[in-house]
C-alpha cells in the first residue's frame, strides 16, 4: 500500500503542476455555482410571487432538470482532460521503461494512478459539499441525507469514468487520442443500452452494461445495491484491463492465454452484474427524510398479506394510443415504472399480450382494412404481427370490450383479476394509490356503489356537465372511484328489488320524477337494514327526496343559499371542510375550496338517534338565503347584514344499527361531484379530493387506499435576493479567482525551481 500511496502522491504533484487540473476545478465551480444560483433564484422569485413551494431539496437537486442531473450530464466532459496523460505521457516520454524496471508491480502502478484520480474526485465532491452548505443557508430544513446520497452517486460515477479514462490512456502514447477515445467509450457505454431492446435476453445484458442514468437512483433518493455493484464492477473491470495491458509489456504470454484471461474477466463481470441486478437480490436504501421513494406502511401491510406473488399481464392493443409503450423496445422503461413494487414483490410475473380490436377510431372499419391497419401499426412499433392476437382470439382469452379495448393491465392473484389502467394525464402510469387499490381488491371484495336511475337522477355514464361520469366511471381518469376499489352499478328499482341487497353504498342524486310507493319502500328497507347512503338534492327540487329525508329525520330548507362575490354569480357558494369533519378522516388543507353551484341548507332536528357532524361551512361569511323561484341574473340581489345565516351545507350521519355502523351523507347540492364542477375553469376547487374522502368514509374506510405521507418541511426559501447575489459573487468570482491565483502562483514557483 505504501508504494501505491507514493505513486498517487507523485501523480497528484504532476497533475497540480499543470494548468489542466486547476482549469477543470475552476470550470466545475463555475458550472455548479451558476446552476445552483439559477435554481434557487427561480424558487425565491416564485415564493415572492405567492407560489407554494414543496420539498425544495428534491425540487432543486433531484429530477431530470435538477442540480445533480446537470452535474451528471456534464461530468463526462472533465474526466478525459484529467486522465488523458496518466499513462500516455509515460509512453510518449519513455519513462514507462523506468516504471517497468522499478520494484513495483503493474497493479501498484495502476492503483496508484487511479487513487490520484479518486483523490482529485474528492476535490470535486468538495465543491458539491460547498453547494450543499450554501443550500443549507438558503432552504429551511434542508434534507442533507438525501443530498449526500446524490453526491455519493456522482462520486462513484466520477471514479467509473476515471477507470475508463485510465485504461484508454494505456492504449496510446498520444494524449489527445486518449481523451477522444475516452469520450468515444463513454458515448458507447451510454448508447449500448438502446441495442437489442426488442430481444429479451439481449435487452437485459445491454441495459446492464449501459452507464446511462446509473446515478439517477442516487440523485433521486435511492441507493440501490445493483447500481453500487455496477460501479464497483466497472471500476474493477477497467482497472484489471489496464493491469493486463501493462503486464503485456512485462511478461511473455501466449495469445491463447491472453484471450482466455480477457474472456474470463469480461464474462465474469457480466454474470456477477446480471445476477446482482435481479429483483430478488436487489437491496435499496431510501435516503429521503420521510422515505418518499418507498411504499407507505399501508401498502406494505397489503403486500404482506399476499400469500403468493401476483401476476401483471399487460394487454396492448396495437391500434390504441398507448401501443408504443407496450412495444418490446420499451420493456425496461415499463419495468422501471413498477420498481417500487418489484422491490417488495420481486417474484411478480410480468407479461405482455399484443392484440388488435376495435377502438373509437376504427369501429366502423371493414375486417380487411382493420387487419391491414393493425399490421401496419404493429410493424411500426416493432411487434411480431404473427404473435398479435386477432379480435376473436383475444376475446376467447379475455374480453376487453368493457375496457373499450384500451391499453390495460390485469393484476391476478389466486384466480381473481382486476384492472390496472393508464390515465390521460401528465404521469400516465398508475401510481401507488391505484396499484394498492388493485391489490386490496384481490384480497377483499370491492365496494359496490349503486346509483339510482330511472327517475331523472344524475347519470354516471355520460360526460354532460350535470352527470357524474368523471368521478365515478371514467376509466382513464385517475381520480375516478372505479380506479380506487369501487364498482359502479346503475340501479333500476323497477327491474329488481334484490339489487339493493348487494350494495355497500347507495347514491340518490337530484331525482326529477317522484318515486313510486314500491320504490320508496325498497329504499327505506335498505336504510333500515343499516345501508350506507349519499343523498344529494338541489334547491327547489327536493320534494322527490322528502320521503327518504323524513325517514331519516332531516329535511332541506325551501330556498337557495347565496354568497356575496365580486367574481362569481351569487349562487356559487365557496365552502371549506369543518374542524369536526377531520374526526371522520376528511382532511383538507386550509386553502382548499369546495364549490357548491346552487345549494340549499339542511334542517337538523334535535331529537334524532343519529350522531350528526357538519362537514362543510361557508369559506366566506356573507351568506344569506332567498326564496324560490329566483332569477339569478335579472333579480336585484345584495347581501345585508341582517340576512346573514350559518347554514348546514352537508352533514354526515352515523348510528349503530343491526350490529354495524351506518353512515349517511346528506348534501344540499348535487352538483359538487358533477362533471361540470370538477372541470370548473374559473375557480381552483378541490371537489374531486373531497368526494373521494366522502366515499372513503361511506365505505367504512376501506377505499380509496390512504397513502398520504408526512408533509414535507423543506418548503421555504430563506435567502433573499441580496443573499443570492452574494452566492453568485462567491461562486462565480471570488472562489474561481482565489483558485486561479493559487494555481498560477504554484505554476510560477515550479517554473522558477
Comma- or semicolon-separated keywords:
single chain, 753 residues, alpha/beta, Rossmann fold, seven-stranded mixed sheet, 25 helices, 20 strands, 45% helix
Q: What can be said about this structure in brief?
A:
This protein is 45% helix and 13% strand. It has 753 residues and is an alpha/beta fold. The strands form 6 sheets. A 7-stranded mixed sheet has the order 8-7-9-10-20-19-16, covered by helices on one side.
Proportion in β-strands = 5-15%
Summed up, the helix count is: 25
Helix content: 40-55%
Q: Summarize the main sheet.
A: 7 strands, mixed
Give the CA-CA distance, first to last residue: 30 Å
Q: Kindly state the number of beta strands.
A: 20
Structural class by SSE content: alpha/beta
Number of domain modules: 3
Shape descriptor reads: elongated
Radius of gyration: 33 Å
Mean pLDDT across all residues, rounded? Answer: 88
Strand order of the largest sheet: 8-7-9-10-20-19-16
Low-confidence stretches: none
Amino acid at each position: 500500500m505504501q508504494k501505491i500511496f507514493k505513486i498517487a502522491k507523485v501523480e497528484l504533484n504532476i497533475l497540480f503542476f499543470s494548468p489542466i487540473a486547476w482549469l477543470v476545478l475552476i470550470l466545475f465551480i463555475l458550472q455548479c455555482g451558476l446552476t445552483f444560483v439559477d435554481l434557487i433564484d427561480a424558487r425565491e422569485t416564485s415564493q415572492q410571487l405567492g407560489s407554494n413551494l414543496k420539498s425544495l431539496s428534491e425540487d432543486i437537486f433531484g429530477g431530470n432538470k435538477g442540480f445533480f442531473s446537470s452535474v451528471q450530464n456534464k461530468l463526462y466532459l472533465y474526466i478525459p482532460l484529467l486522465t488523458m496523460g496518466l499513462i500516455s505521457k509515460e509512453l510518449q516520454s519513455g519513462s514507462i521503461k523506468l516504471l517497468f524496471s522499478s520494484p513495483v508491480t503493474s497493479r501498484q502502478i495502476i492503483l496508484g494512478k487511479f487513487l490520484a484520480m479518486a483523490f482529485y474526485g474528492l476535490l470535486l465532491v468538495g465543491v458539491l459539499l460547498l453547494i450543499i452548505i450554501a443550500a443549507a443557508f438558503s432552504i429551511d430544513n434542508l434534507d442533507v441525507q438525501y443530498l449526500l446520497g446524490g453526491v455519493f452517486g456522482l462520486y462513484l460515477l466520477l471514479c467509473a469514468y476515471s477507470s475508463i479514462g485510465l485504461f484508454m490512456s494505456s492504449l496510446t502514447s498520444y494524449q489527445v487520442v486518449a481523451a477522444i477515445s475516452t469520450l468515444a467509450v463513454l458515448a458507447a457505454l451510454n448508447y449500448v443500452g438502446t441495442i437489442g431492446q426488442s430481444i429479451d435476453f439481449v435487452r437485459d445484458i445491454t441495459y446492464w452494461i449501459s452507464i446511462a442514468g446509473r446515478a439517477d437512483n442516487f440523485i433521486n433518493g435511492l441507493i440501490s445495491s445493483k447500481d453500487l455493484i455496477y460501479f464497483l464492477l466497472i471500476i474493477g473491470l477497467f482497472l484489471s484491463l489496464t493491469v493486463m495491458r501493462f503486464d503485456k509489456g512485462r511478461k511473455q504470454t501466449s495469445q491463447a492465454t491472453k484471450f482466455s484471461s480477457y474472456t474470463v474477466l469480461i464474462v465474469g463481470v457480466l454474470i456477477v452484474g446480471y445476477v446482482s441486478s435481479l429483483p430478488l437480490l436487489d437491496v435499496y436504501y431510501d435516503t429521503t427524510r420521510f422515505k418518499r421513494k418507498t411504499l407507505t406502511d399501508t401498502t406494505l401491510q397489503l403486500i404482506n398479506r399476499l400469500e403468493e406473488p401476483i401476476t401483471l399481464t399487460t394487454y396492448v392493443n396495437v391500434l390504441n394510443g398507448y401501443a408504443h409503450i407496450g412495444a418490446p423496445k420499451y420493456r425496461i422503461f415499463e419495468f422501471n415504472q413498477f420498481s417500487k413494487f418489484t422491490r417488495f414483490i420481486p417474484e411478480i410475473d410480468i407479461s405482455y399480450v399484443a392484440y388488435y380490436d376495435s377502438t373509437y377510431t376504427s369501429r366502423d372499419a371493414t375486417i380487411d382494412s382493420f387487419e391491414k391497419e393493425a399490421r401496419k401499426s404493429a410493424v411500426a412499433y416493432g411487434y411480431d404481427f404473427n404473435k398479435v392476437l386477432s379480435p376473436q382470439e383475444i376475446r376467447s382469452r379475455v374480453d376487453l370490450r368493457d375496457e373499450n379495448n384500451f391499453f390495460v393491465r390485469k393484476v391476478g392473484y389466486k384466480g381473481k383479476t382486476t384492472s390496472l389502467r393508464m390515465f390521460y394525464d401528465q404521469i400516465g402510469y398508475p401510481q401507488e394509490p391505484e396499484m394498492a387499490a388493485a391489490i386490496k381488491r384481490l384480497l377483499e371484495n370491492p365496494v359496490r356503489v349503486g346509483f339510482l336511475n330511472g327517475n331523472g337522477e344524475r347519470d354516471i355514464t355520460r360526460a354532460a356537465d350535470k352527470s357524474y361520469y368523471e368521478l365515478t366511471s371514467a376509466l382513464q381518469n385517475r381520480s375516478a372511484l372505479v380506479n380506487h376499489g369501487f364498482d359502479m352499478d346503475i340501479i333500476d328499482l323497477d327491474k329488481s328489488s334484490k339489487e339493493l341487497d348487494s350494495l355497500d353504498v347507495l347514491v340518490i342524486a337530484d331525482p326529477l320524477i317522484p318515486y313510486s310507493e314500491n320504490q320508496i319502500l325498497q329504499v327505506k328497507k335498505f336504510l333500515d337494514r343499516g345501508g350506507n347512503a349519499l343523498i344529494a338534492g338541489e334547491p327547489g327540487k327536493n320534494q322527490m327526496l322528502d320521503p327518504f329525508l323524513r325517514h331519516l329525520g332531516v329535511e332541506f330548507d325551501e330556498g337557495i343559499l347565496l354568497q356575496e362575490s365580486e367574481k362569481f354569480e351569487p349562487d356559487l357558494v365557496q365552502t371549506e371542510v369543518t374542524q369536526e369533519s377531520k374526526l371522520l378522516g376528511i382532511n383538507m388543507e386550509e386553502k382548499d375550496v369546495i364549490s357548491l353551484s346552487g345549494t340549499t341548507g339542511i334542517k337538523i332536528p334535535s331529537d334524532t338517534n343519529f350522531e350528526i357532524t357538519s362537514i362543510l361551512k361557508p369559506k366566506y361569511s356573507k351568506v344569506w338565503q332567498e326564496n324560490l323561484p329566483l332569477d339569478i341574473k335579472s333579480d336585484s340581489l345584495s347581501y345585508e347584514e341582517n340576512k346573514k345565516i350559518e347554514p348546514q351545507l352537508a352533514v354526515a350521519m352515523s348510528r349503530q344499527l343491526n350490529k354495524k355502523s351506518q353512515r349517511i351523507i346528506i348534501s344540499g347540492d348535487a352538483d359538487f361531484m358533477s362533471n361540470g364542477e370538477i372541470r370548473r375553469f374559473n375557480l381552483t376547487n378541490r371537489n374531486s379530493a373531497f368526494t373521494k374522502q366522502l366515499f372513503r368514509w361511506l365505505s367504512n374506510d376501506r377505499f380509496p387506499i390512504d397513502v398520504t405521507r408526512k408533509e414535507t418541511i423543506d418548503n421555504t426559501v430563506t435567502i433573499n435576493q441580496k443573499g443570492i447575489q452574494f452566492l453568485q459573487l462567491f461562486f462565480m468570482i471570488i472562489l474561481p479567482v482565489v483558485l486561479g491565483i493559487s494555481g498560477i502562483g504554484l505554476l510560477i514557483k515550479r517554473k522558477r525551481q
